[in-house]
Every structure is written in structure tokens, then in C-alpha cells.
């Protein structure tokens, strides 16, 4: 799956077959009285509001996204009702003759849908909604028509009663004063927020999150989020949050209490989309957020996201883990941008541009991921033209991010695991195909590398890494990068229609170049 970060689109990957969703027609609104529209638009009538019965609309299928090209070494960055019928003139004699009493069901089927047929068939011949006016017989009404009439009458009575009461209360209030009641603010009446509640978790985590502002030398930049990693002043965030400040730009981090600190980049990993910055003159009372175990996360677990969506700092949203091991390739959409790959935690907690780099917490307040990317309909937000959340957010698992952050703090450069083979980045369901030629005309199989030693050849299609199904090149890269150099893995591949399995030891590559 391809996604976007900070609201910039990249080519999406194929998804599961769309599920048809029933839709309904909406009714146009009547114009405002007096011929002029009000300043504030009136809310639209909900599409699922009761309307004149009819046939439901057919579902519309979703469209399938397109796919990107091919690229680097695996493990490397590279209705309305019927009209009223005219009836005969009413009899002028008094008392008027009694109305005819049609037999129930005459002229209509009992099974006809409500409102179906001319004159609302189903209420008897001549007794439908399109029949001429007849004085009602003094007997109880049968069927849904009577129910609707009763509801309308009740509504009118309630409206009149409410109006009268409103006038009386307004008049009485002139002499009796306000009748509002304030809640007691005594200690015994204060709300107690037990440990483990969202409010409690947020109260503990917010002081250890920061809003990051990155600005390049030409004044361009953006806003993101980060969180305290250790007591030395290291802050973990996304690479794309600080990218504008990499070459001599300006970087600041602001805490919820308003204190702002200048910061510098310690190291950044474009492929992992992880970066570490350090506060200048860091305070001595920093409290790092506890790190959880993303391998133990289960689908359905509660999640809490903290960030600065659209610049709204210190925003807390909640959701669940929607999926695990979701292959994601994300990019900022620029011409020079290289994709980042992850085997992501998917969450429906609301994540928007500005949430990037912020912590994704579990119900205990431990960090289980770094919010990094969203899938969006690109319908804008706050007039900025940026994409907004549709409940598909992706976070880098903290177990991977922790390893990367530690490497950046130690050496300033990332270390990537690799198999030493160039694979196609076309999104397919067949697997990751080793290309015939590598980038820049190089060999598709690195001489002496892990793939070469394992006997892999150009044209082989890798379908599994250990027990993880591989459906494309990006999926393979993201899965390799969940491992460390030196890890032993089992590769399942197809060659000439035959399936083979081989073990190999992952190699390493330092830096993003």
C-alpha cells in the first residue's frame, strides 16, 4: 500500500476488492424565505432521513488505485408520492351521506410495499392516498396512514404546548431571576480519573510531547510532532518532519507548557522515516515516554495518538489497532523524494498533517508506534488544500523505531538490513520479482551478497519471508527492514513455476546513499 505523509499524494497500491455500499438520493433544500440565502449555510437533510417510500438505490463500487514503477535493491531505499386525484363535488345535503367503507385489500395486494401502486395501493380500492376527499368514518384508523396522521397531530400539539410553556417560563423568569444550577466544586464532588482512563494517560503523556517547527534556509517549512526519548534531551520524530532543516535550517521544539527550545538534528533515516533531534539547553526534568512492545500489540487494542494536526498542538485522539504488518510505502510527493517503507501498525485514531512524528500509545500510555502516514481522499482541510483523516493512519512499530533511534544517537547514520537483490516495485499479488538488471545498469544480484550466496537469480519471484506472505517489492523491503543485519531468515521463491525455499543471513548497509 502506498500512502502519503503531510498531505502530499503518492501512487496508491492495490487494495482488497471494494465492498458495495448502498447509497440514497438526497432531496434538494428549499430556498430561504425572501429570495436571499443566509450567511451561514443550512445543514443538509440527512440522506437516511425518512422519505416517501420507494426503491433503494443500487450500491456503487469503489475504484481501484494505480501502481508505481520499479526500483532499488530489496532492503534498500531506492421519490415523491402520487398526486391527489380530483374528486366529485361534495353532497350539499345535511347530514352528509356516510362514506363508503372499502373492503381491506380490495384492488390491492396485502404484500404490496408501502406507497407502491397508484393511489397508495394496499389500503383498499378507492381508499388510497390519491382518492377523492371523503369525510372520515367515526372509527379507529387502520394501517400506517393512521399512524402518520397521529404523529403529525402529536407534533403540532407538542409544538403549541412548547410555545405556550416557553412564553410562560420567559414571563415568570422576569420576576424570579435565573434558574440555572452550578455543580459543586467541593473536593468530594470532583471528578476522579482513574489510572488507565484516556484522560489519565493523556495527562501523563502530554508533558513529554513537543510540537516541532522546521524551517529551511529559504523560509519554507512545516509543523510536526515528537516525543521525549531520554533524559539527555533526545526527541524522536519522523524524518520528513525535520527534512527542511537538514542543511542548516532552523529547528524548534515547543512543550505544552509553552516552553520553546532550539534543537539540532542528531541523525535521520530517510528509508525508515525516523529522525532524532536534540534540545539545546535541555531542561533537567525531562520525563521520557515509556516504550511498549509493538510485537505484542493485537488487532482491536485501544490506541491514543498525540500530535499537532493542522498546527493544533497537543491534540489527543483515540481509536484502535485496525491491522498489523500493513506494508506501506510513503512519500512527501516531491520530485526528489524517495519512498520510505514500513510494515506498519494501522489505526483509526484520527491522524492528520502535523501528527507526523507523534507517539501512538496503548491503553497504558506506553509508546507502540510513531505516527507517520495516512491514506486520504485528498479533500482538503481548513482550506489548506491538505488531505485529512479518513480513519486510515499508519505508524512505525516502536520496536523498529527504537533500534533506528539508538543507531542514530550512536553513529548519526542509519543501518539497514538487506538481501542484496534488486526487486521490482510494481504492485502485484504474485510476489517480489528480482529484476533482470539493477539500478544504473548494475547487476540485479549483488556479487557475494546474501542473495548471491543463497543462489537467487534474476527472474525469481520471492513469495515469503519466514511466515510473512510477500505480495510485492515494497512489501519485501518493509519486511526486511523489520529485521537487523545478521538475522537469519527463510526465503520462499518461485522459479520456472517451481517453489523453492532457502535460508540466508541478512547483510547491512550504512546510511541512506
From TrEMBL:
Keywords of the record: Hydrolase, Membrane, Protease, Transmembrane, Transmembrane helix
Query: Where are the residues of the annotated region Disordered?
Result: 1-111
Q: Which SMART domains match?
A: PDZ
Compositional bias segments (type: Low complexity): 21-38, 49-92
Q: Which organism is it from?
A: Streptomyces pluripotens
**According to the lineage, what is the superkingdom?**
Bacteria
Q: Where are the transmembrane segments?
A: 147-170
Q: Carries keyword Transmembrane helix?
A: yes
Organism taxonomic ancestry: Bacteria, Bacillati, Actinomycetota, Actinomycetes, Kitasatosporales
Q: What is this protein called?
A: Protease
Which parts of the sequence belong to the PDZ domain? Answer: 417-497
List all Pro residues biased stretches: 11-20, 93-102
What Pfam families does the database record attribute to this sequence? PDZ_2, Trypsin_2
Does the record's keyword annotation contain Cytoplasm?
A: no
What Gene Ontology molecular-function terms does this entry list?
serine-type endopeptidase activity
Q: Which InterPro entries does the record match to this protein?
A: Chloro_Bact_Ser_Proteases, PDZ, PDZ_sf, Peptidase_S1_PA, Peptidase_S1C
Which Gene Ontology BP terms does the record give?
proteolysis
Amino acid at each position: 500500500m502506498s500512502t502519503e505523509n503531510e498531505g502530499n499524494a503518492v501512487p496508491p497500491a492495490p487494495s482488497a476488492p471494494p465492498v458495495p455500499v448502498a447509497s440514497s438520493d438526497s432531496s434538494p433544500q428549499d430556498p430561504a424565505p425572501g429570495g436571499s440565502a443566509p450567511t451561514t449555510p443550512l445543514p443538509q437533510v440527512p440522506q437516511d432521513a425518512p422519505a416517501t417510500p420507494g426503491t433503494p438505490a443500487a450500491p456503487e463500487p469503489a475504484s481501484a488505485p494505480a501502481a508505481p514503477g520499479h526500483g532499488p535493491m530489496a532492503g534498500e531505499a531506492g421519490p415523491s408520492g402520487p398526486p391527489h386525484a380530483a374528486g366529485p363535488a361534495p353532497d350539499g345535503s345535511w347530514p352528509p351521506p356516510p362514506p363508503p367503507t372499502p373492503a381491506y385489500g380490495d384492488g390491492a395486494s396485502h404484500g404490496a410495499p408501502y406507497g407502491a401502486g397508484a393511489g397508495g395501493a394496499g389500503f383498499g380500492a378507492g381508499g388510497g392516498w390519491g382518492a377523492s376527499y371523503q369525510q372520515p368514518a367515526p372509527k379507529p384508523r387502520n394501517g400506517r396512514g393512521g399512524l402518520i396522521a397521529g404523529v403529525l397531530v402529536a407534533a403540532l400539539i407538542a409544538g403549541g404546548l412548547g410555545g405556550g410553556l416557553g412564553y410562560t417560563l420567559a414571563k415568570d423568569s422576569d420576576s424570579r431571576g435565573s434558574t440555572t444550577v452550578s455543580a459543586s466544586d467541593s473536593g468530594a464532588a470532583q471528578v476522579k480519573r482513574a489510572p488507565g482512563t484516556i484522560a489519565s494517560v493523556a495527562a501523563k503523556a502530554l508533558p513529554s510531547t513537543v510540537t516541532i517547527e522546521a524551517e529551511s534556509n529559504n523560509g519554507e517549512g512545516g509543523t510536526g510532532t515528537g516525543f521525549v526519548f531520554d533524559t539527555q534531551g533526545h526527541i524522536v520524530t519522523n524524518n520528513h518532519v525535520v527534512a527542511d532543516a537538514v542543511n542548516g535550517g532552523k529547528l524548534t521544539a515547543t512543550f505544552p507548557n509553552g516552553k520553546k527550545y532550539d534543537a539540532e538534528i542528531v541523525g535521520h533515516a530517510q528509508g525508515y522515516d525516523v529522525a532524532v533531534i536534540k534540545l539545546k539547553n535541555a531542561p533537567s526534568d525531562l520525563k521520557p515516554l515509556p516504550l511498549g512492545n509493538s510485537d505484542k500489540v493485537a488487532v482491536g487494542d485501544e490506541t491514543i495518538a498525540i500530535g499537532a494536526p493542522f498546527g493544533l498542538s497537543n491534540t489527543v485522539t483515540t481509536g484502535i489497532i485496525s491491522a498489523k504488518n500493513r506494508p506501506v510505502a510513503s512519500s512527501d510527493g516531491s520530485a526528489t523524494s524517495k519512498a520510505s517503507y514500513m510494515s506498519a501498525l494501522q489505526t483509526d485514531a484520527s491522524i492528520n498533517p502535523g501528527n507526523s512524528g507523534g507517539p501512538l500509545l496503548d491503553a497504558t500510555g506506553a509508546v507502540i508506534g510513531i505516527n507517520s502516514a495516512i491514506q486520504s481522499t485528498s479533500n482538503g482541510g481548513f482550506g489548506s488544500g491538505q488531505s485529512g483523516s479518513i480513519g486510515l493512519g499508519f505508524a512505525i512499530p516502536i520496536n523498529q523505531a527504537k533500534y533506528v533511534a539508538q543507531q542514530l544517537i550512536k553513529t548519526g547514520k542509519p543501518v539497514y538490513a538487506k538481501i542484496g537483490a534488486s526487486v521490482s516495485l510494481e504492485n502485484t499479488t504474485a510476489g517480489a520479482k528480482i529484476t533482470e538488471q539493477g539500478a544504473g545498469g548494475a547487476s540485479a544480484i549483488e556479487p557475494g551478497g546474501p542473495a548471491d550466496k543463497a543462489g537467487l537469480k534474476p527472474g525469481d519471484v520471492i513469495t515469503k519471508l519466514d511466515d510473512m506472505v510477500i505480495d510485492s517489492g515494497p512489501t519485501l523491503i518493509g519486511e526486511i527492514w523489520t529485521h537487523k543485519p545478521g538475522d537469519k531468515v527463510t526465503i520462499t521463491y518461485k522459479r520456472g513455476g517451481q517453489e523453492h525455499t532457502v535460508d540466508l543471513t541478512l547483510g547491512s548497509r550504512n546510511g541512506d546513499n
